[in-house]
Amino acid sequence: MSMDEGIAALRARERAARVMGGPEKLRKRREAGILNAEERIDRLVDPGSYVETGLLAVSSAPGANARDTPRDGKLAGFGRIEGRPVAVVSNDFTVKGASSSQTNMKKIGHVKRVATERGFPIVFFGESSGARMPDNMGARGMGTQLGNDPTQYVRHRESPWVSAVLGQCYGSSAWYTCLADFAVMRKGAVMAVASPLLASAAIGQKVDPEELGGWKLHSEVTGLIDRVAETDEEAIDLIRRFLSYMPSHNNETPPRLPPPDQAPQDVAARIRETLPENRRRVYDMRKVIEAIVDPASFFEMKPAFGRTAVTGLARMDGATVGVVANNPRHKAGAMDVAACEKITRFLVMCDSFNIPILLFVDTPGFVIGVEGERMKAPGKIMNFMTALQLCTVPKLSVIMRKSYGQAYLNMGGGRNSDEVSAWPTAEISFMDPAYAVQVVTWGRDVSDDEKERLRQDMERDNSVWGLAEIYAAQRVIAPEETRDHLIQMLDFHQLRRSNGLGRHKLAGWPTTY
Amino acid sequence: MANQEIKSEVTGTVWKIECKAGDRVAEGDVLMILESMKMEIPVEATLAGEIVEITVQVDQPVAEGDVVCVVRP
Question: Which of A18, A141, A376, B72 is deepest in the core (most CB within 10 A)?
């Protein structure tokens, strides 16, 4: 074959691969408003930056027809987002339901390996029916297809992983989502261990797909999804936004944007407007966060899960920070099991990618009672505490109002953060004085006047001044000074001796707790 | 759409009820205030509609997930 003939054959094979599952299947997706595997990549990466790998790869199963398996149902390649490299895997559901097979797993393995070793993020567009049948059947099928890559399902967090659930995600698409640092799901998509069909066949459970693994379940109950999107396009735009906060890999610091053109002018007014004078009243902590960080920079993670806490990425004077806060709007800010899980996972991610942590504290403590105990609350609280203490990135805490009991430690009290500041409204103690009076007078005959005197004494001792006088808080600041204080302290606390890098002690921690 | 149940997010005690059957409410309106952990915890309407029934009384203890009122969209 001459070079010209060879090139003509190459072009013909490339054209054949790009038909994907054929015009009919692609038309149906278009009509349903769902992007195809190529369009998703186009939306993700900078125009003209995509380089595909394995365009000509097809099924290697005995008897498989190459024409039926263009790209073997999974697209893989490299591109750039805002100029920075990224690897991408895009499941093509129109080819064999994007089922996992020997060839396409090699494709995923390759781009994962390159992204990990060369230091850039990988994005998975999940939409797969699971393992390909009958390729995986039998001892030889299993031995050939599975278990040959001992790094397939493990995180050391060398570079960020992102996953989007954009259709049916069973098997590997679900596993990659659970392992990701950021997972987004389009409404209508489903993520589960196995399909409703298999659930019905194997255990006789008739189940609605949304109930089995829909967006409400994963954003509100399991917390396995960080954000929900209405469309494929919105999901992909959220991925680009998430990655804008992240370093390309764990041995660099996050990219720093120029400081905002105009610093927030009305911090004082916005905080005063949000924070109630009455200490019994609740408010939405997210409004306080938004008043303190760079304008429009707050990117919340898992907003509908564990709502007694708020976690999210933001910028301070252009630099990426992770915000962990209590939210009195829900359960008065008392942290429940879901909140502990959400915070733990977020701390692990921030520490792994050299993102300093800001803790905004207003919590009456951890939720107590039967419900939490049944869900292993003490263990969850200690996971959270251990994660906090293993974090080696700078941690700055601000006690805004309540900080009680063990939650005082978990939210960075004392030496559990590198710099503790407090507002004049801060109140710190082991428990609310009203309950403490009951504890200290329990079983004794004490008059109501005496109880009231005890209560007033304990309330006075809760004040911020005690904390300042014994230097358990380094500074007492007005709410409107918080932004400037944090920007200054973030600078003083930069990890200069390691060029901004933490020690990543949490890098191998599980992704779900 | 069927009637929707509004549930308590916390375990606590009903402190004040700020609506009555027949009231029109907007999403986010405060329907009642519970007391839990010495804090006032508002229960908000999760949808707009008409209050069909209030299923709790002042001073009644409620558990997390208990229905406190019913709204017809």
Answer: A141
